[in-house]
Amino acid sequence: MSAPNTNEGAYRTSATDNAGSDDDDDRSTTSQNRPAEAQTDLDRASTLSNYDSDENQADKNAEADGALDIAKAIGKVSLGGDDNGDGDEDAGDGAAQEKSNESDHIHDYEDTPGLPSLARWIQTGEVSNILVLSGAGVSCNAGIPDFRTPGTGLYDNLAKYNLPYPEAVFDINFYRKNSGPFVSLASEIWPGLRHSPTLTHSFIKLLDDKGLLLRNYTQNIDGLEILAGVSEERIVECHGHFRTASCVNCFSPHDGTKAKEEIVQNRRAPKCRRCKGPVKPDIVFFGEGLPDRFGKLLRQDLEIADLIIVMGTSLMVAPVSLIPTMVHDDCRRVLFNRELVGDFNPGQGQQRDIFGCGDIDDTVHELCEMLAWEQELHVQNKKTRIGEAAELPQLAGDDSTTDSPVDRLVKDEIT
After folding, report:
1. Is the separation of the CB atoms in 192 and 410 below 8 Å?
2. Is residue 333 within 8 Å of 344, Cβ to Cβ?
3. Using CA atoms, how far apart are residues 340 and 110, in angstroms rounded to an integer?
4. Which residues are catalytic, by number?
5. Spatial distance between the Cα atoms of 201 and 221, rounded to a whole number of angstroms
6. pTM as predicted
7. From CA 275, how far away is CA 251, in angstroms rounded?
8. Spatial CB neighbours of 412, under 8 Å, sequence gap ≥ 6
9. CB 28 within 8 A of CB 312
10. CA distances for 403 relative to 231, 342, 379, 384, 407, angstroms
11. Residue 405: closest CA among 238, 235, 246, 191
12. What is the spatial distance between Cα 54 and Cα 47, in angstroms, rounded to a whole number?
């Protein structure tokens, strides 16, 4: 994984809160307004080499080539948005389907697909293999800052660490020389300590429970999908996670619970028992490749996905930014964001793309109301709030225990 180009990326201004700056913007390269043919993973190897040593160049090129091979094999590198009328909607049925209580800002789905269309697709089983692609915007309501929003973003609040450049806190070569800044930061943001899943994370959990979630490709390292109860099998953490750890020199695995204890409680980097090198959690730093799981599952998921929901991301960096363009032509696409990004093209007579503009939790809540999932959403979310998971009402037919995913993870670490 390459370090970012500071001229384009380190202080790039993006939409605030639920859009724009997210974890995907911090482990890869920007691809602003380039021709479709240029928006490939080769950008990552060629553009973002500012902070990498020569010894990492071969690894970077291999990683970029591997991800691009996936795109070429599936034949979906192009960013064309000309899917007009390819969906299953029948324009002639529009009048019969109109709802009198529909919000003014949501159009009838036969003219321009909106949230009612999405609810109908889910309720009728027209979609049953849903990909979710999430960025830092889904976690902003949990109190976790994104990376680049001016004033509130993580990179604007790292002065106390005296870094040579903001991204150094996630640079593998810098960590080998000085692990202190990352250790201090990690002790503050470690999953399960302060931040609880949002309604959007709980929505992803409901999709999983109902057998609708094919996969959640998350660009975040906050672990809130796991804390929300989404099964690990259904999650691809594109930029890694804190649950396991390994040596940055010899790559030997290190006990994740002991790594957490050293970093969170003792505020120091663990040492490898084999080579005495520094150990870090298995999150992706600049100079490291994406997890093998990403490439292995993406190829098969793209073949069977019939809906992709993209939430809280700027879609500015490869390879994750390519996923919405790589799904097959019959796959419907939904964007929940504060601004329109990527090649999404809602309206204008097309029947494939939906854009839910605004706060992501608000949009998810509105959709769940249409699906009659509102009570389930709130009960599920309350279960996972840190410090608020006791004495919960159970839904009819719900035989789950009162232990939240947070509680279970804590117990697992203690035992």
Report:
1. yes
2. yes
3. 21
4. 239
5. 13
6. 0.69
7. 10
8. none
9. no
10. 15, 39, 13, 9, 6
11. 191
12. 14
Two tokens, residue 221:
């390292």
pLDDT in tens, the chain (415 residues): 433 332 322 222 333 334 443 444 444 433 333 333 333 333 333 333 333 334 444 444 444 455 555 544 444 433 333 333 333 434 334 433 443 333 333 334 345 789 999 999 999 999 999 999 999 899 999 988 766 666 666 666 677 788 898 889 999 999 999 999 999 889 888 998 889 999 999 999 999 999 999 999 999 999 999 999 999 999 999 999 999 999 999 999 999 999 999 999 999 999 999 999 999 999 999 878 899 999 999 999 999 999 999 999 989 877 899 999 999 999 999 999 999 999 998 987 778 999 999 999 999 999 999 999 999 999 999 999 987 543 344 444 444 444 444 334 434 433 3
Residue type, 400: S
Backbone angles phi, psi at 162, to 5 degrees: 55, 50
3-state secondary structure the chain: CCCCCHHHHHCCCCCCCCCCCCHHHHCCEECCCCCHHHCCCHHHHHHCCCCCCHHHHHHHHHHHHHHHHHHHHHCCCCCCCCCCCCCCCCHHHHHHHCCCCCCCCCCCCCCCCCHHHHHHHHHCCCCCCEEEEECHHHHHHHCCCCCCCCCCCHHHHCHHHCCCCHHHHHEHHHHHHCCHHHHHHHHHHCCCCCCCCCHHHHHHHHHHHCCCEEEEEECCCCCHHHHCCCCHHHEEECCEEEEEEEECCCCCEECHHHHHHHHHHCCCCCECCCCCCEEEEEECCECCCCCHHHHHHHHHHHHHCCEEEEECCCCCEECHHHHHHHCCCCCEEEEEECCCCCCCCCCCCCCCEEEEECCHHHHHHHHHHHHCCHHHHHHHHHHCCCCCCCCCCCCCCCCCCCCCHHHHHHHHHHC
The distance of Cα 204 from the centroid of its chain, to the nearest Å, equals 11
